[in-house]
Amino acid sequence: MSLPVPTADSRAVVTGASSGIGTALATELAERGYSLILVARRTELLTALAERLTSSHGVQVEVRAVDLSDPVAREKLAGELAEREISVLCNNAGVATFGPVAQLDAGFERDLVQLNAVAVHDLTLAVLPGMLARRSGAILVTGSAAGNLPVPNNATYAATKAFANTFTESLRHELKGTGVHVTLLAPGPVRTETPDPAEASIVDKVLPDSVWVTSESVAKESIDALARNKMRVVPGIVGKVMSVAGGYAPRALSAPVIGTLYRKLGEGEG
Length: 270
Ligand SMILES: NC(=O)c1ccc[n+]([C@@H]2O[C@H](COP(=O)([O-])OP(=O)(O)OC[C@H]3O[C@@H](n4cnc5c(N)ncnc54)[C@H](OP(=O)(O)O)[C@@H]3O)[C@@H](O)[C@H]2O)c1
What we know:
Elements: E1 11-15, H1 20-31, E2 36-40, H2 43-57, E3 61-65, H3 71-83, E4 86-91, H4 106-134, E5 137-142, H5 155-174, E6 180-185, E7 190-191, H6 202-206, E8 213-214, H7 215-227, E9 232-233, H8 237-248, H9 251-269
Parallel strand pairs: 1-2, 1-4, 2-3, 4-5, 5-6, 6-9, 7-8
Helix pairs in contact: 1-2, 1-7, 3-4, 4-5
NADP nicotinamide-adenine-dinucleotide phosphate binds at residues 16-22, 40-42, 67-69, 92-96, 115, 142, 144, 187, 189-190, 192.
């Protein structure tokens, strides 16, 4: 079992490639010889990454500046991907909000659902027919440990990640024997940049350095897991604890405890 062999015409797509885990996934794939299509909104960051990856790894890198929460823009991208030879899709773009949903911006919450859940569905459905016809392909979805259980004060995010987690693990079983690999990345906290002590978030202050994992280690672990067609990769001790809690703790007990923690996170973000 391995990933599709990189070719001149095929492309690996990484959404949310302009920062954090997405940049690390794109870098990891380029190191393994994949030519890429990078997707996010911030063109200048994508272009700088594309130049860096082309010069260090000799791969072709295309940039698509797309707002994935916009159904029209997303449909155009999905249409292009359906026509191209996409060997690897990393559905990674996502954002989170903290606080009681009734107090959050309703428009932003709706956009968050479009980005974290509907875009994952749309782009997966766009590339699947081609992968099945070629009997070769690999799809990584960045869900979250937060998608395993109710998370008051992070409700829309947790619900979209529950969609991502369940969709991915269900799809994986449907695709057994087709040659298409599907893996869920469901991390706990990932340190995507070194926090400035003056601007550190409450999460940075509360969690000791030892429990954080880096984007680079997450990306390597994820692409290795995708090559082996593992069902789920859960980097980091906090993610593993949240996975166990989501599986075994009664929801009536876990919801208020987690809700209190996330209320504090929301106050820290505000
Ligand atoms: N870091 C963690 O602790 C953690 C834990 C569990 C799960 N995750 C998940 O990991 C994924 C990556 O997160 P990260 O930590 O690497 O955060 P990040 O650095 O903020 O990256 C988020 C990426 O999503 C892109 N994005 C945001 N809104 C978008 C939109 N409307 N259209 C297209 N792209 C958009 C951003 O690019 P632009 O702003 O340029 O559009 C950026 O490239 C997310 O799905 C997140 O939920 C992260």
